[in-house]
Amino acid sequence: MCYIDGSIDQATSTCPMCKVFRPKADRCPHRTETCRNSSLHPRHDVVHFKNAEVQSFNGCGYCKWARTNPPPARAGYNNPGWPGCCRPPQPQEFALIPPADWYAVSLVHRVPIPPDVKALLDSLPPVKGGVTQSATPS
């Protein structure tokens, strides 16, 4: 999950990973880092997670997006960031998100899990200590 460095969202948001994976301690265990790669995201510096439980939320999503060699209309100053990390994914981007990450992506961005991914996840046996299937959002 990325925030623009110094943004209102960064200053006022509760840790999105703590919303999904409740920490055992009183403090948020998640660490962030500021990416200042102005060649890949020249408009702003980006604060991102270093130790999120979910692959999609680790690292700078704006750098991830830029490294996919997007069309000029979605590069440089127009870099929207990685879908599911920096922003809610569009339907044509659903395949970029690993199935195991969809539960967290759906909670953080308030988007439904795609039906094919939900069917796959529901077909798997429950994981001990994992999220229950009844808690999975539609």
From TrEMBL:
Q: What is this protein called?
A: Uncharacterized protein
Protein's organism: Rickenella mellea
